[in-house]
Each structure stands twice: as structure tokens, then as C-alpha cells.
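User: My advisor asked me to double-check a structure prediction for Corrinoid protein before group meeting. I don't want to rely on an old file, so could you generate it fresh from this sequence?
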Amino acid sequence: MGPDEILKALYDETLVGNGPRVLELTNLGLEQGMTPETMLFDALIPSLEEVGARFERGDFFVPEMLIAGKAMSGALDVLRPLLADTGAETAGTFLMGTVKGDVHDIGKNLVNIMLEGAGFHVIDLGVQVAPEKFVTAIQEHKPDVVGFSAFLTTTMPMFKANMNALQKAGLRDQVIVMVGGAPVTQEYADAVGADGYAADASAAVKRAKELIRQRRVAATV
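Assistant: Sure, here is a fresh prediction for Corrinoid protein from the sequence you gave:
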């Protein structure tokens, strides 16, 4: 297989979520001297973007997104250390966690996979993350974006508690805040003072990129 064939196969196999084949093709590409960037930006990311587009059109559902994301995740495990060595620029750093009192993580994990696929450096704090843990992690990692995830209506008020903790620590203006999860709406995100909201994983990636772009433009003005 030549480089073009490998890229096409990587795209196709990621789309259908064939993890073992994606891993095999990734290693084959590296053996043939292909760069991690080429495989990522010319095959894997476009494939995951297509998955997102199909999800938005209603042609794909959550299971298809999960298996495609998982297939891509396997390739990323191989490519990530190599990308770090070449100093490839990331789209930004995204700190993520499910709020205190909530143990749901499927949606959060799917967003993480999509973000990583889009070139973000993702730091996942896991579930049941207390406000003070978010504060400490923001101070340590200095992310561009922090994401609060809630699956239960009963844990959604933690968004406000987290925002208050950021405010108190003097961090609110230093980070973009995004919120999401099954019961969350744009109205609720506005009410708690978040910068962004997304209804699903592919929308989260687009919104995060938009918000970072806006902030960078504002910083140069």
C-alpha cells in the first residue's frame, strides 16, 4: 500500500469504527515513513469530522460515534507521543470533568475523543469533580477552556458553584467556560454565566474552536 492508499483506508476504517484495522494502518504508515501529522490531519480528523456531520444529519447515532471515536483513540495512543516530539501545535488545552455528585461519563468521554481528534490537548479530571479540584487543576494546567458536564438535573446547580469558585479564586477571566450534558440547555448555560454550550460532541468541538478564536482575536485588538 502506498501513502495515498493508507490515508484513504484510514479515513474509511475510522468512519466505520474498525479499531484493529485503524491501528494496523497507523503502524503501517509509520513504517513507510509517513508523518503522524499527515495521518492525523489528512485522514483521521477529516474522518471524525465526517462522523460528526453524519451525526448532525441523523445518519449516525451515538453508538456509531462511539465506535469511530474509539477507533481513532487507538491511533491517537500511537501518534500522540510522536506528535509531542515534533512539537506539533495543538488547537488548545481543554480541561474536562463531570461535576460533583454526578458519576456519568459516557457523554464526557465522547466529547474528549472528539476534542482530541480535532487536535486539542485534553485533561480529563473524571467524575464527581468538586469545585476546588477544578480550581486547582486550572491553576496547574492553565487550560484555554474548562468544560463542566452534568447528566442529572439535580447536579446542574454545581455549574453555578463551580463558577463561584472560579470567581473567588480570580480565575474566571482567565479561562473559557463551557457546559453540557443531557438536561443542559443554552438558556441554562446563559443563566449560570457560561461562555459556551453544546448539545453534542461534534458541536462542542466547533464551539470550543470558535470561542478560542474569538478570544485570540480580542487579545490582539
